[in-house]
Amino acid sequence: MNGLHDMGGMDGFGPVVPERDEPIFHAEWERRAFALVLAMAPHGKWTLDGARFAREKLSPADQLNKTYYERWLEACVDLMLETGLLSRHEIETGKPDPALPRATPALTGEAVLPALMRGSSARVDADIAPRFAVGQRVRARNTHPTGHTRLPRYARGREGVVSIDHGVFILPDTNAVMAGQSPQHVYAVRFSANELWGGRGNARDCVLVDLWDEYLEPVGD
């Protein structure tokens, strides 16, 4: 979807000022919010792409005014409400809702670390033919999906060259809404800075963007 989460190439937001000696967490609640988001994964109610999509759906005001972990926490609460893991009554009272079914099985503290250590990968072991070859000139499709996508706006409609075929991976667009994995090849596509930014780009610079088969079309079509 088009939104303020996809700010690449946009102007007017001021300089990025790195924080000197920035800590991983600025407050204890940030550490707990991060742990809460990770602890929800073993329930299988949403995917990593679904969690990203939930953060993307936050309002423009929230995108600009909330901190990183405030956005993580708000999106996680939204997902728990949508999937029935949490009720509005529980948020408002801080007490269990007797009318809400309990998550089964319960996720104990001892089970969290082993679940996280198992991890998961978006790579798919499937014999799927690539649509494009290394060295081939391609164009990023100029589409404006209403759902989650990993095709940034600044690259849409721009031409580049396939530099690397990473192999087959889950398509985030469908995986975000539990609509299947739609496995396909992912390529590192090289775009010149001039192609992306016009005369403002440095002719010596380029950007490599990882793009799925579905995001690309051959130049000449």
TrEMBL record:
Recorded name of the encoding gene: nthB
Entry annotated with the keyword Lyase: yes
Occurrences of domain Nitrile hydratase beta subunit (ranges): 122-218
Keywords (A to Z) from UniProt: Lyase
Catalytic activity entry: an aliphatic primary amide = an aliphatic nitrile + H2O
The protein's role, per its UniProt record: NHase catalyzes the hydration of various nitrile compounds to the corresponding amides.
Protein name as annotated: Nitrile hydratase subunit beta
Pfam family, one: NHase_beta_C
Family: Belongs to the nitrile hydratase subunit beta family.
